[in-house]
Amino acid sequence: MDTLKAMLILGKVIDSGNMSSVGRELGMSNSAVSQHIKQLEKHYSMKLINRTTRHISPTSAGQILWQSAREISLILTKTQQNLTALKTEFSGVVTISLPSASIESPSIKRFLLQMNEQYPQIDIHLLPDDNVADLYKDNIDIALRATEPSGNLIARFLTQWQLCICASPTYLAKNPVNHLGDLVQGTWIHFNNKIFDNAFATMGLGKFSANKVIHCPIISSAKSLALEGFGLTLQLYGDIEHYVENGELSVVLPNGSLPTYNIYAVTAHRNQSAKINAVLSVLKQVFK
């Protein structure tokens, strides 16, 4: 027996005082309505209603269940209203995890400006994190990733960015890089073994190796050190585009065969609330 359903039916019967009207409202026969109440009485081993040919009234036990049924009905109604609002209202907080270096990218700045113009009631919480965030555990709405997501996550393609070697003009003036052999002689600001090994292998240099290495696990900090002239590093072009255009960073060996990365907006579920769909739409626009 569905106890909750039977309680709600009992509540409607006591409210209306008429089984026939409740049956018509719910699309049930009178006998089906009566059967639900009988099962409920059997479940609690108590008589719940007093019934005459003209009147239905609750017993003391029925009064208790009737009050509980009214409270449950109000909760269900409020829940439905909240869920409906979630589907239609463009307001609230949306949490986005993204690589630390992307915080200053032109794409993210355009995204924030456009969100403020189009959806001022949506508050964006940016969480810079160079690790792969757990969308379920960390309560994250959207993750921007440069890798193909695994498992049941839903990935929406945004764009493709080239990985590039960069350094400040000051560093390169003292340590020019004219061919691949110069790379291993330089000072490198290193943040991830897999990315650096893959880049060197793609260029035919084997595993990553350098004359001097500064280890810095945070990608944005590696970029900052490169801007200050401490050495070479790897960055996605979309994250350093404005520094290159301003002349603060230079791309080294731009014709080299470094890998490209697809950038995705990843969510835990395909169906999303109105506010998250709005954010995903703006992300697609600005990265496109």
UniProtKB/TrEMBL annotation:
The keyword Ion transport does not apply. It comes from Exercitatus varius. It holds the Pfam family LysR_substrate. SUPFAM superfamilies: Periplasmic binding protein-like II (SSF53850), Winged helix' DNA-binding domain (SSF46785). Residues 1-59 form the HTH lysR-type domain. PROSITE patterns: HTH_LYSR. This is LysR family transcriptional regulator. Keywords: DNA-binding, Transcription, Transcription regulation. The keyword Plastid does not apply. Belongs to the LysR transcriptional regulatory family.
